[in-house]
What we know:
By secondary structure, this protein is an all-alpha fold. The protein has one domain. The protein has helices spanning 2-55, 59-71. Helix 1 crosses helix 2 (59-71). The longest helix has 54 residues, at 2-55.
Amino acid sequence: MASVLDALAPSVIKMIKDMLKEELTMLMGVSMEINKLGGKVENLEAYLADAERRRINETRVQKWGKKKESKQ
Length: 72
């Protein structure tokens, strides 16, 4: 029985390592995507803040803001 386990151990260990490598690769990819999305959200927040500031003074931006509000 011990010889069977000794023969299977390297295969099982390789299989576990491959599964872990695949899982880590996927998790790292998700982490990078979350970081990219975070950057996009920051850009959107800055854009919206700028639009809000401009809405006070610019008629064109006021019209755009009213269109967006009526669609919600």
